[in-house]
């Protein structure tokens, strides 16, 4: 073998190695079904097919995701619409790169105000004076509930809101620590099974909204420096979303693996609808609602919130 043949072979190997190199990507999400499209894309090898060595990183509290993105511990995260908009309003230069989940009749029906035994809720005004636990003040479920109260003519300032995490809801409802909690499946079914209370309102169903619940975001600096990675991520998420919306078995397996829940529990509740395409107008309603609740101090530019 001549030196020219060896050189040519080495050059070919170098090009082949580069072509098959996988770009590392860390995606941070809470233990929720709303990042199912990314979970499926990891589990089914879709990210790898697109040249991405993607890893799902569990984040305990959704409001910690913007900080994790900016610190570089993750490149892409799945904040809720409210967390993302509050972060952007606070001056954090984040940008949405793809859609994750949107509200739908199915997901809205899973959201409830669950009331402990001994408390009677017949209409919205019955929540006045009650102690209501929310999984984060200003979080997705809390903002929706306040919107519902306002639409029903109830002053939300007359409701005593406190923070209660999802894992502690069954115990605090049973002990009478709060009168009601804003929650969703599978927590609702767990509490119904123990006979600790009843459903006081399916407020999300009454609102009938279809806006985003969670979407994938990154720092603007990272996204603009890595357009090829963003393109590959979007393509993989689109494939993952199609599976989430059509194949419950594959989706449940991926969710159970990431959230560390039993497959039986995951299958008991359908995943929220995945919608990989995110449009500026989909955030307009959230901005209006949050502004009316004095949660935003600046006028956010819709066209700058989503990476083109």
UniProtKB/TrEMBL annotation:
One biological process GO term for this chain?
alkanesulfonate transmembrane transport
| Domain SsuA/THI5-like stretches | 33-244
List locations, semicolon-separated. Answer: Periplasm
SUPFAM superfamilies of this UniProt entry?
A: Periplasmic binding protein-like II
Q: Which branch of life, at top level?
A: Bacteria
- One cellular component term from this protein's GO annotations in UniProt: periplasmic space
Q: What is its main location?
A: periplasm
- Give the transmembrane ranges: none
Swiss-Prot/TrEMBL keywords: Signal
Q: Which residues form the signal peptide?
A: 1-21
State if Signal is listed as a keyword.
yes
Q: Which family does it belong to?
A: Belongs to the bacterial solute-binding protein SsuA/TauA family.
What this protein is called in its record is ABC transporter substrate-binding protein
